[in-house]
Design brief:
Blueprint: E1 2-18, E2 24-44, E3 48-53, H1 65-76, E4 82-88, H2 99-114, H3 121-128, H4 135-140, E5 143-148, E6 152-155, E7 163-168, H5 175-181, H6 193-201, H7 205-211, E8 213-214, H8 217-223, H9 226-236, E9 241-244, E10 251-255, H10 258-271, E11 276-281
Parallel strand pairs: 1-8, 3-4
Antiparallel strand pairs: 1-2, 2-4, 2-5, 5-6, 7-10, 7-11, 9-10
Helix pairs in contact: 1-2, 2-3, 6-7
């Protein structure tokens, strides 16, 4: 079984407060894009999970979210056979694009299918939150409002057709550090999440992009000014809006024209501001599930 683990971007990211358990209450609009890692999963007669990865610094034991996801289902259903999983990563690591969470989500889907466990999408999402707050969304995919710590999901209409340019500078940002360093008093502007949802419903891409916002941006940009430089370059070259995804440092630009996006990608590559440059589009859940391709 060969499955795609798709990346996500945050069209809007707001923090409402900190909970007693130390987690933050968030309100986010999530969107899956056509950038992905690949999981190849095979059943084996020998019990256990054998995981390999194409990058030497990726852990292949219980620290890996793919391993954790597979282990949860195999223990719960007392699976006697084993698994051989090959993970090929293309989504940048520690980039604010939920690469690890999407890998785990795809492992949940794959293990459910390969052993015919019969779990529904909702039942998979209930188990997925044990691995990480973004994992249930990565099972669900598409355009969604995420609340709570990110696990309360409401599907919203498909985002209007557009093109997405990804630019990740050669730095990494710890999600834990980003949350620990943000203070509610320091947030001077909250994105208009409700307004964005109305614009998506009306298919008004331009109006939606002008309401986009990420409360992590100011603090992360102060640490890494290159993020602002990438944003400016994208907007100077035709992006309706460029913004940092998640806790960063990846920047994405939204374009209404494929040629403009490709031209901007060429400029960004020449600038050498970004280590990873990737031109793509949004994932259309209604256009067929790419998970099996």
């Amino acid at each position: 079984m060969r499955l795609r683990a798709l990346a996500k971007i945050n069209l809007g990211l707001d923090i409402l407060g900190k909970r007693a358990d130390g987690y933050h209450e968030v309100r986010m609009i999530m969107q899956t894009i056509q950038m992905y890692d690949v999981l190849e999963i095979r059943k084996t007669r020998k019990p256990g999970i054998f995981l390999t990865a194409n990058l030497p610094y990726i852990p292949t034991d219980g620290r890996n979210l793919v391993y954790k996801a597979a282990d949860i289902l195999m223990k719960e259903f007392q699976v006697k056979e084993g698994l051989n999983i090959k993970l090929t990563k293309s989504i940048p690591v520690a980039a604010g694009m939920a690469g690890g969470s999407s890998d785990a989500a795809t492992a949940f889907v794959g293990v459910n299918r390969i052993f015919n466990l019969g779990l529904t999408e909702e039942e998979l999402k209930e188990r997925a939150v044990q691995v990480g707050a973004d994992v249930p969304y990565c099972i669900m995919r598409g355009t969604a409002l995420a609340e709570g710590i990110g696990e309360k999901l409401t599907r919203i209409p498909q985002m209007p057709k557009c093109y997405v340019l990804i630019g990740k500078p050669g730095v990494s940002v710890s999600t834990r550090m980003a949350y620990e360093s943000i203070s509610m008093e320091g947030i001077d502007r909250h994105p208009d999440i409700d307004g964005m949802i109305r614009d998506i419903e009306k298919r008004d891409l331009l109006s939606m992009t002008q309401k986009m916002g990420n409360v992590f941006e100011p603090g992360i940009i102060r640490r890494y000014p290159v993020i602002q430089k990438i944003k400016d370059l994208m907007e100077e070259n035709g992006a309706l809006k460029a913004m940092m995804s998640g806790s960063g440092p990846t920047v994405f630009g939204i374009f209404d024209d494929r040629d403009k996006m490709r031209a901007a990608a060429a400029v960004l590559r020449r600038s050498r501001l970004a280590k990873t440059v990737f031109a793509t589009t949004i994932y259309n859940r209604n256009g067929g599930d790419t998970n099996d391709k």
